[in-house]
């Protein structure tokens, strides 16, 4: 399993672009899941890192989390509005695992409250998905070229340059 910390160690360029773009959009990303009928679904989500892991959590009883409970594969893309991608963008993919651990949930709720003021303390969580990151890529525009960084667990980031 590749946690967020493992991803950062293995893919420093991609993870930095992801962090920067994630922060620039107020933590908004687009989550790709598979619907029950097999068609893809794209939904907004605000993933968070906590205790060295990436958590894909949010409002309970939403279809995106039903999708993940049924089929744990996902892709996560930084929300990009610049067609020139001048600030770069990043995506990662993997599988989630539901973690029904009330102590973990409350530690997460405390950290979320301390960081944002949003109060979930004392509430029960439905799905609480931790991400096993299986791959990632990013793009950056340079002087007349596009650098595409690609990473898989156990490998070093590699760069494909397009002119």
TrEMBL record:
<dbReference type="GO" id="GO:0070967">
    <property type="term" value="F:coenzyme F420 binding"/>
</dbReference>
<keyword id="KW-0560">Oxidoreductase</keyword>
<dbReference type="GO" id="GO:0005829">
    <property type="term" value="C:cytosol"/>
</dbReference>
<dbReference type="InterPro" id="IPR011576">
    <property type="entry name" value="Pyridox_Oxase_N"/>
</dbReference>
<protein>
    <submittedName>
        <fullName>Pyridoxamine 5'-phosphate oxidase</fullName>
    </submittedName>
</protein>
<feature type="domain" description="Pyridoxamine 5'-phosphate oxidase N-terminal">
    <location>
        <begin position="27"/>
        <end position="109"/>
    </location>
</feature>
<dbReference type="InterPro" id="IPR012349">
    <property type="entry name" value="Split_barrel_FMN-bd"/>
</dbReference>
<dbReference type="Pfam" id="PF01243">
    <property type="entry name" value="PNPOx_N"/>
</dbReference>
<dbReference type="InterPro" id="IPR052019">
    <property type="entry name" value="F420H2_bilvrd_red/Heme_oxyg"/>
</dbReference>
<dbReference type="GO" id="GO:0016627">
    <property type="term" value="F:oxidoreductase activity, acting on the CH-CH group of donors"/>
</dbReference>
């Amino acid at each position: 399993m590749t946690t967020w910390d493992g991803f950062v160690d293995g893919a420093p360029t991609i993870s930095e672009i992801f962090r920067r773009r994630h922060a620039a959009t107020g933590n908004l990303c687009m989550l790709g899941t598979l619907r029950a009928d097999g068609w893809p679904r794209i939904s907004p989500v605000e993933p968070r890192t906590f205790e060295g892991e990436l958590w894909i959590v949010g409002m309970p009883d939403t279809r995106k989390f039903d999708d993940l409970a049924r089929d744990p594969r996902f892709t996560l893309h930084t929300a990009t509005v610049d067609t020139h991608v001048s600030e770069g963008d990043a995506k990662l993919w993997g599988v989630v695992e539901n973690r029904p651990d009330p102590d973990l949930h409350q530690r997460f709720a405390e950290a979320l409250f301390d960081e944002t003021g949003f109060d979930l303390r004392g509430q029960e969580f439905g799905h609480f998905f931790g991400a096993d990151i299986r791959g990632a890529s990013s793009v950056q525009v340079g002087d007349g070229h596009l650098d595409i960084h690609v990473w898989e667990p156990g490998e070093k980031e590699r760069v494909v340059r397009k002119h």
